[in-house]
């Protein structure tokens, strides 16, 4: 779901860094600070365009382009290989300061440059039916435990609620 607008914004950023002009990031059309989810989406879109069975390019050029995409994705989706690749092209995610292109645009999730979680975005997929059922069972179990604690507490006190006094403190009231 990369749009031409996103790739045009990322083009000038890679031109500022000479090692990025012919990198795997440029090949996939993402910035080096892209999250694994953004890399996966870019690869998915480009693989649909350049797959030898679905493109209008010649078989040889489509195969070559598709193999380059596969190599780039295989490197960038593996955290260890990505880190060594970043060191090879001398890019550091931690020392590069990125200025947003439009400061008047409000902050949104889509223009976020990094995710709080390294590899999983909780909004990336809905919960499965098994996960929903597990959450339901946990809720029922919690409610059952609370109800059982209340019943046991009332049974031990013979149905009369008594005020709780801290240990060692005795209050005598004489009337």
Task: Tell me the series of helices and strands, N- to C-terminal.
Answer: HHHHHH
Shape: elongated
How many strand units?
A: 0
Question: How is the main sheet built?
Answer: none
CATH class of one domain: Mainly Alpha
User: Which residues form runs of ≥5 with pLDDT under 50?
Assistant: 1-20, 111-117
The helical percent reads 40-55%
What is the CATH H-level superfamily of one domain?
Answer: DnaJ domain
Secondary structure class reads mainly alpha
Distance between the termini: 80 Å
The proportion of residues in beta strands is: under 5%
Question: Could you name the CATH topology of one domain?
Answer: Helix Hairpins
Keywords: Membrane, Stress response, Transmembrane, Transmembrane helix
Protein name: Heat shock protein DnaJ domain protein
InterPro entries: DnaJ_C4, DnaJ_domain, DnaJ_domain_CS, J_dom_sf
Report what the structure shows.
It is built from six helices and no strands. The model is unreliable at 1-20 and 111-117 (pLDDT under 50). 51% of the residues lie in helices and 0% in strands. The chain has a domain at 24-77: DnaJ domain (Helix Hairpins, Orthogonal Bundle). It is mostly helical. It has helices spanning 4-16, 24-28, 36-50, 59-77, 79-88, 129-156.
């Amino acid at each position: 779901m990369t749009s031409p607008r996103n790739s045009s914004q990322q083009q000038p950023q890679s031109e500022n860094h000479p090692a990025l002009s012919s990198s795997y990031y440029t090949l996939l059309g993402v910035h080096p600070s892209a999250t694994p989810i953004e890399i996966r989406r870019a690869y998915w879109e480009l693989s649909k365009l350049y797959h030898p069975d679905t493109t209008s390019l010649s078989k040889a050029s489509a195969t070559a382009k598709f193999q380059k995409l596969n190599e780039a994705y295989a490197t960038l989706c593996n955290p260890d290989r990505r880190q060594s690749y970043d060191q090879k092209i001398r890019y550091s995610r931690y020392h590069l300061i990125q200025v947003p292109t439009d400061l008047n645009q409000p902050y949104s999730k889509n223009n976020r440059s990094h995710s709080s979680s390294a590899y999983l975005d909780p909004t990336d997929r809905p919960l499965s039916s098994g996960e929903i059922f597990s959450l339901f069972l946990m809720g029922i179990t919690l409610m059952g435990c609370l109800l059982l604690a209340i019943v046991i507490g009332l049974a031990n006190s013979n149905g009369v609620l008594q005020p709780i006094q801290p240990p060692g403190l005795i209050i005598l009231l004489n009337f």
